[in-house]
Structure prediction request, 305 residues.
Amino acid sequence: MNTSIPHFTSLAQALVELFGKSAALDHTDRVSGGDINRSYALTLTNGAKVFMKANAKEHVDFFFAESAGLQAIAQTGTLKTPHILCTGTDDGEQVGYSFLLMDVIESAPKKADYWEAFAHNLSLMHKADTTQFVSGGKFGFNANNFIGAGNQYNNAHASWISFFRDCRLVPQFKKADHYFDAAFKKKCDKLLSHLDALLVEPGKPSLLHGDLWSGNVMCGSDGNAWLIDPACYVGHAEADIAMTQLFGGFSQAFYETYKAEGLLMEGYEQRRDLYNLYHLLNHLNLFGSTYLEPVRDIVAEYADR
Prediction:
């Protein structure tokens, strides 16, 4: 839990502490989107509007982790994120729940240079100092968090390649073990055993959003890209860019601008699918066998290189 973010034991208490003694909930509107948490637009009796995410009470750790990730991105001073008001739990009248309150992000049309500005600012985030985000190593994060609804492990490592092996691929392979026959398990072991021949160490560690697909980027009231729903850790900048290309991709102007910033190392295209193996394994573990074939294809591609 991040102690710099207030935590309350009821929604009513949170509204009073944040907005004054007369603050109370006027009405609640359900907001579509997201398959992990429920989202709502709260309108208070004083006219203020608040965005709320909610989940089961025992899942409050989701919101501690999200707060830490949004704070980390904000601390780089490079890309906008929603302002976090508080976390909390509420016993409710029938069933308890946990919640996260944030400012509402008002939307506006994209600026003419939206994609170029987004790529440039993302490169600045990837170039920012990371020493405050991980202790005892160069890669990882100060706490474990989540990738979607799955656990994400962020133990500190001195090497990006060992971090990606031990904290990204190995836990997902173990969780997906029941999908694999003996022959395929041998391919997985072979892939893991020569990962150092397939990946490269970055010139410097980068703070990553960690789940950077189009659904986690919004256009704010300033016409610029804002980041939401992070799964932050310190790693290789290429892993963020690879994730942007897994489910549809961004504008070509984004990639041209980002490439000009010099963070993509030679041979990135040959590593991209290996980075995304992590996300496909996570989807396999969360959503089932629809993702088994792409996982098999990528393992087969890299195991014999």
Summary: The radius of gyration is 20 Å.
